[in-house]
Write a structure and sequence with these properties.
Keywords: Cytoplasm, Lyase, Phosphoprotein. This protein has 103 residues and is an alpha+beta fold. 39% of the residues lie in helices and 23% in strands.
Amino acid sequence: MKLIKRAVAGTLESSDIQVIIEPREEACIEIELKSSVEKQFGRQIRRVIRETLEALGVENARVIATDRGALDCTIRARVLCAAYRASGIKGKYDWEVIDKWNA
């Protein structure tokens, strides 16, 4: 999936995460995380973000995530939403990527 613009998903409410994704020219995924629980769960939050983007085939992205105690499923949902918005895809979502976590 190719990102073409900056996109946002999520809120700054408790138990949520705001994810901002923007395209990068370099071939890497850069994650900037702000979280009150970063010491306990920062590694897991980054892993979920990275795995979700890799499952979508995103290779060039800068992610700014502001976490307020979101669960993994919420993090995945916000990353998916932001990535689809950033790619400009409308209505042709790859639901197979999402189903892999339900197996």
